[in-house]
Amino acid sequence: MKNFDIIIIGAGPGGSVAAKVASENGYSTCTLEKELLGEKGRYKACGGAAAWELIEEINYPEEKIGRVIESLELHHVDGESYSKKGKGAVVWRSTFDKFLTDMAVDSGALLKDNELMINIEKVEDFYKISTNKDKYIAKYVIAADGVSSPTLKLLGWPFFKSQDVILTITKEMKTTKSYIDKILGSDTVHLFFGIKDLIPVGYAWLFPKTDKITVGWGNQIDLVKNSRKEFEKFWTLPYVKEALKNSTMEIFKPHLIPVGVRPKLYEENVFAVGDAGGMVDPISGKGIPYAMMSGQIAIETIKSCEKKDKLDKLGTTYEKSLDRRFLKILKAKRIARDKIFKDDESLKKFLKLWEKHRASEIVMKKLLD
Ligand SMILES: Cc1cc2nc3c(=O)[nH]c(=O)nc-3n(C[C@H](O)[C@H](O)[C@H](O)COP(=O)(O)OP(=O)(O)OC[C@H]3O[C@@H](n4cnc5c(N)ncnc54)[C@H](O)[C@@H]3O)c2cc1C
Prior knowledge:
Blueprint lengths: L1 E8 L3 H12 L4 E4 L16 E3 H6 L7 E12 L4 E11 L1 H14 L3 E3 L4 E7 L2 E6 L3 E9 L6 H5 L10 E10 L2 H7 L4 E6 L8 E7 L3 E9 L6 H9 L2 H6 L4 E11 L7 E2 L2 E3 L15 H20 L6 H27 L3 H13 L2 H6 L5
Parallel strand pairs: 1-2, 1-9, 2-6, 4-11, 9-16
Antiparallel strand pairs: 3-5, 4-5, 7-8, 8-9, 10-13, 10-14, 11-12, 12-13, 15-16
Helix pairs in contact: 1-3, 1-8, 8-9
């Protein structure tokens, strides 16, 4: 039985940032990741869009970026389109997540990849964790194992409401850089909306990377009747057909996105981080920065409560810090999402406002009302 202060389940952005911060603060830390990471990391279905501030903050190397982005084109299927300027990047999640995992390992955190967590149980003041290869014991557990979080499921935590889960389909399409530049533009990502004629609550996207296009579609799961047919509606839009002409599919992957906060984020030394806690922007689906921030906040919470000898305050401190940093805004956006996707008129009003304002500004200043 291997003993650690903190065991982290999942080496996505949430888990790797938690591992790095924990190790830097002197905690013995082990991350368990079910996938084999190797040199190149593991595939993760994701648009991979990241704000430029994030790329700079972590010194993400230019050569690892899939494409530098300068604008966002918002298409409504009725014919209107809206343009939003702003620098960002699209990254391959295999490369991006491996970069963060390497940072954690460089800080001294132990990584056990290709190791599937299969059981967790509380024994007195500790957690016993079993994988397909070994057994571990830890005082604290960080559940950073994604939206379906096997850790939280085994511990009997409640799952998300169905209105708070988006079903997505991703296809990675290989084409050529010159064709992407010609059809989609060299520095533009494209989002597609339409409540009546495309997707009731969600959107679809074309995210160009170097010589590939990440094609995605997402709809609120309880509104999906036939995902294949509904995806087909997007796939056969004239603009999309043209963009994907002569391309070949390399990967097809359905995945879930949580767009509402999990009913519980902490209990008895277990912290839900990132997608496991539902920390995703309910309007855009952006989750990478929130996973990273929540991983950091979970460890800072442990450190500050231990220092003040206030371990009974771990849960409230964690939730208050999350709210202060970003979660309060995500919760407000969850309420606004229902207004935005009420009908196409409301949606177009939002898209028009989004051209000039940040979504958080539209929501917090109630510009939609
Ligand atoms: C289609 C799609 C498009 C998206 N596009 C964007 C985007 O453009 N920009 C953005 O910011 N966000 C995007 N997101 C959201 C983003 O991907 C997530 O919010 C982010 O990955 C959350 O990180 P995480 O660390 O919480 O979890 P994850 O990245 O899901 O990592 C969880 C890790 O846990 C591991 N794991 C699971 N079970 C076990 C187990 N039993 N034992 C050991 N390991 C386990 C998994 O293998 C995985 O590596 C998108 C999501 C989807 C589905």
